[in-house]
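#struct-pred
JK: can someone run the complex with flavin mononucleotide? inputs below
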Amino acid sequence: MKEFPVSKVYRLLEPGPVVLVTTRARNGTPDIMTMGFHMVIRHDSPPLLGCIIGPWDHSYTALRDTGECVIAIPGADLAEIMVDIGNCSGRDTDKFARFGFTQSPAKTVSAPLTENCLANIECRVADTTMVDRLSLWILEPQAAWINPDRPEQRTLHHRGDGTFTIDGPVISLRERMVLWKQFQD
Ligand SMILES: Cc1cc2nc3c(=O)[nH]c(=O)nc-3n(C[C@H](O)[C@H](O)[C@H](O)COP(=O)(O)O)c2cc1C
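RT: done, structure tokens with the ligand placed:
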């Protein structure tokens, strides 16, 4: 995997892919969950992300205890596995073993990277003030990695009902982005 600047992490998430979130509990056990509810909050200085992880998820406890996670973006080839990861719990399942995912150590957090995915974003919790009320965590990316040599680069997008779209053609409207030239380099 190749390091990717945290100041450009918004480009990985602004298209709205379904993601996976890894955590590592205090006892060292890793977990992974599926997440569709996330958003970019700030581009840079520092970059900030928002995501919904609720107390119904086993991952919630590790995120609360450690303040760390990794957001991993699966390729379209991982569609079935991504759904299955989101339909079982680390409470009673070793999901890394069950789904044959390859973990590797992150640079800045204890949660593992997943080499199977096309990007990994190491995050620290930056703000918990909306967690009790809304299960909304504010995360600050610390480091990011991409897998540019992975054959399948298309991402998945949940339509909210168990159906998904896969990335289609990319069109460029850069010449019309007259107010936002700084985001095109
Ligand atoms: C497509 C999909 C999207 C999901 N999005 C979210 C989400 O945004 N937030 C959330 O808390 N759970 C979400 N879930 C549910 C969790 O992935 C599920 O509760 C998961 O099994 C939690 O794993 P854990 O108990 O090991 O933490 C989603 C599940 C699927 C299949």
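RT: quick notes.
The pocket of flavin mononucleotide is lined by residues 18, 31, 33-37, 52-54, 56-59, 83, 86-91, 158 (CB under 6 Å).
The CA atoms of residues 22 and 32 lie 4 Å apart.
JK: thanks, will look after standup
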